[in-house]
UniProtKB/TrEMBL annotation:
It catalyses: tRNA(Arg) + L-arginine + ATP = L-arginyl-tRNA(Arg) + AMP + diphosphate. This is Arginine--tRNA ligase. It holds the Pfam family Arg_tRNA_synt_N. One of its GO terms (molecular function) is arginine-tRNA ligase activity. It is an enzyme of class 6 (ligase). It is found in: Cytoplasm. Monomer.
Length: 584
């Protein structure tokens, strides 16, 4: 399928051509076209161009208008105000472009011309620890970005850089050796049991560790055994990892998110490469020895008293940490996975870490002009009261409890609305609505901003929520079912009323919106688009009888608008990782 050129792009091209013929020296002039309430589009670019050319803007605008080809796509164009252009497009052009979009499986969303390989680092919880709302954000945003990038033709590879290494494992493993049987084999537990076992072991081992200096010493020796690859120690370490994975998978499943085992490549996977990373950095002079440690300094990164804050590649005791694993991961992702883009979806509070890691990798040549690295640092999840999200007792909120509560609240909403559903159907939809609500609330805010986790607001039927979008979708499906024999058919010869044109012009913008949102890593732009789509659909539905339209052609054409709206909602929501149930 050839890509569908949007009306905005067509009009833009016509205007640009006219501008260039009116002012031949301004090549590459931008008419600055946007949707407008006054006409279909307004172009404001002439003002700046006139200023540059020292011409009168209204006169220039009038001259441009004379040069614009009209009659097919553009029905009418006039000068307004100091030199704006108001453009009205032909009804026929709207319906014809929409028909072309409808004929395309991709709804006219363009594919990237030169797709690359993006390695996306997201959904990275820590072994033997409960997942929290921060991990939720990474998973939700990362999953949406991945769908969006894939859809525009980019090849994505996921990397779940789980925290599966570190000194705390000495304590955990030593405890398990001294208290065998405390962790049931992973195959015998579900996610909740796995986590509660891990929690118990964590707390118990912590208590012994804090109280008993001999144990502390044994735990320290256990770290050394782990690092030197002692077989028994590694086996027990693996048990913690496997037990945690049972838990992770249960949460990801609840989140309705596909996570592939081969993409769970945690910190430990880079262990073998870390000494080499350190050696290379030292040889190149990128890292230097300072008080025994191997570190990298930066001119612009300073802490208290203007002291430079270094990135620690290797500690004085020879141990490697978070930075070494991330640097080694970069070598692997660029060198072995052939990444052209490295995308990290990690809390904004780690942005200094990534700034230093990226700069180090650049100095070492592991990042160069062929590879870009970007951290999508996301903001904090706040409680409904706007304060950091905690339970009433001041503890961090368990992700699972939160998701369960969202589903439960959604069940109330679904039950109230749909009297004729069985209890099983209610539960199934409640899961789709509740999880959708959580994802949408997250994704409809710009990732860099904090957002409030407010369940009341999230599952509300009114306002900018996924439930509102899901209802719009289900309502359309119900109309399509009721239409019986009547099918959606585009009739370009028909005149359109204002609500149809507004809906149609918005549908036409889907391709550009998705393409740009993917390029900018901005899922919230897709969310905003969909919300507006549902709102315009509601306005259309209020004003334009569909099944009771005046003529058969009009009915078919309106069914066509309904159908394309539904498909667009479905596709858009799928990009955000949210389901659209056929009935609600
Ligand atoms: N596990 C880390 C945490 O919970 C996030 C890992 C982010 N990814 C990375 N490559 N450092 O904070």
């Amino acid at each position: 399928m050839a890509p569908v050129t949007s009306l905005t792009d067509l009009v833009n091209q016509r205007l640009t051509d006219a501008l260039v013929s009116a002012l031949p020296e301004t090549d590459g002039a931008d008419p600055l076209l946007r949707r407008s309430d006054r006409a279909d589009f307004q172009a404001n670019g002439i003002l700046a161009l006139a200023k540059k050319a020292k011409a009168n803007p209204r006169e220039l605008a009038t001259k441009v208008v004379g040069d614009i080809v009209t009659g097919d796509v553009i029905k009418d164009v006039e000068v307004s105000g100091p030199g704006f252009l108001n453009v009205t497009v032909a009804d026929r052009a709207i319906t014809e472009t929409l028909a072309a979009r409808a004929a395309d499986d991709r709804l006219g969303v363009p594919l990237k011309e030169n797709p690359g390989v993006t390695v996306i680092d997201y959904a990275q919880p820590n072994v033997a620890k409960e997942m929290h709302v921060g991990h939720l954000r990474s998973a939700v945003i990362g999953d949406a970005l991945r769908h969006m990038l894939d859809f525009t033709g980019e090849r994505t590879i996921g990397r779940h850089h789980i925290g599966d290494w570190g000194t705390q494992f000495g304590m955990l493993i030593q405890y398990l050796i001294e208290n065998p049987g405390e962790l049931a084999p992973p195959s015998q537990v579900d996610g909740t049991e796995a986590m509660s076992n891990l929690n118990r072991v964590y707390k118990a081992s912590r208590a012994v560790f804090d109280a008993d200096d001999d144990f502390k010493e044994r735990a320290r020796k256990r770290v050394v055994a782990l690092q030197s690859g002692d077989e028994e120690t590694l086996k027990l370490w693996q048990q913690f990892v496997d037990e945690s994975k049972v838990y992770f998978y249960s949460v990801f499943e609840k989140l309705d998110m596909e996570i592939r085992d081969e993409e769970i490549v945690g910190e430990s996977a880079y262990n073998d490469g870390m000494p080499e990373t350190a050696r290379l950095l030292e040889e190149m002079g990128v890292a230097v020895r300072s008080e025994g440690a191997l570190v990298v300094f930066f001119d612009d990164i300073r802490g208290k008293d203007d002291q430079p804050v270094p990135l620690i590649v290797q500690k004085a005791d020879g141990g490697f940490g978070y930075a070494a694993s991330d640097l080694t991961a970069i070598r692997n992702r660029v060198g072995e996975l052939d990444a052209t883009t490295l995308l990290y979806v990690v809390d904004v509070r780690q942005s200094l870490h990534f700034k230093m890691v990226f700069e180090t990798a650049r100095r070492a040549g592991w990042l160069n002009e062929n590879v870009t690295a970007h951290n999508m640092g996301y903001g904090t999840v706040l409680g409904a009261d706007g304060k950091p999200f905690k339970t009433r007792e001041g503890e961090t909120v368990k992700l699972e409890d939160l998701l369960d509560e969202a589903v439960q609240r959604a069940a109330e909403v679904v039950r109230e609305k749909a009297q004729d559903l069985t209890e099983e159907e209610i539960q199934e939809r409640a899961a789709q609505v509740g999880i959708g609500a959580v994802k949408y609330a997250d994704l409809s805010t710009s990732p860099s901003r904090d957002y409030k986790f407010d369940l009341d607001q999230m599952v509300s039927l009114n306002g900018d929520t996924s439930v509102y979008l899901q209802y719009a979708y289900a309502r359309i499906q119900s109309i399509l079912r009721k239409a019986g024999e009547a099918k959606p058919v585009a009739h370009p010869e028909l005149e359109l009323v204002a609500a149809e044109r507004a809906l149609g012009l918005h549908l036409d913008a889907f391709g550009t919106t998705v393409f740009e949102a993917a390029a900018e890593y901005a899922p919230h732009k897709v969310a905003a688009y969909l919300y507006q789509l549902a709102s315009l659909y509601t306005a259309f539905y209020d004003k334009c009888p569909v099944l009771k339209a005046d003529t058969e052609e009009q009915k078919e054409n309106r069914l066509f608008l309904c159908d394309l709206t539904a498909r667009t909602l479905h596709q858009g929501m799928a990009l955000l990782g949210i389901r659209t149930p056929e009935r609600l």
